[in-house]
Amino acid sequence: MKQIKPLTGIDLLQKVGELSKEAKFSKEEKAKACGYYTKTKNGVERVNMMKFLNALIDAEGIELDSSSEGQGRGGRSASYKISVQSNGNLLIGSAYTKKMGLESGDEFEITLGRKHIHLKQVGIMDESE
């Protein structure tokens, strides 16, 4: 296989899409076909998987190096979406509770709607009251 310049951006996404449709290529074969490999002095080809995966992340526009906005350690940021867990629970993460200034022991009254849940903090006057 002739060494090609590693693909990036939309070219990379298109090539990976084509390879995914054509046949069952391994991720290493896809990386190599997109130019993410080098040849050693002995002529052995080595696939650069990390560079390939990073290029895919960049091409998709996924930002992994976002700042933590002064919140100390990194962690997840609030996506404002949650999923029902396999045990039926809904978990509201600390990103939301920190943003709201909630503390351990704060209590809420739950009101169920057709497809929504309304939480009202116990002991806090609502603006409509």
UniProtKB/TrEMBL annotation:
Keywords: DNA-binding
Signal peptide as annotated in the record: none
GO MF annotations in UniProt: DNA-binding transcription repressor activity; transcription cis-regulatory region binding
Every SpoVT-AbrB domain range: 79-124
Pfam families hit by this protein: AbrB-like
Key word DNA-binding present: yes
Single GO cellular component term: protein-DNA complex
DNA-binding listed as a keyword: yes
Xref: InterPro entries: AbrB-like, SpoVT-AbrB_dom
PANTHER family the UniProt entry points to: SLL0359 PROTEIN
Record protein name field: SpoVT-AbrB domain-containing protein
Organism lineage string: Bacteria, Bacillati, Cyanobacteriota, Cyanophyceae, Oscillatoriophycideae
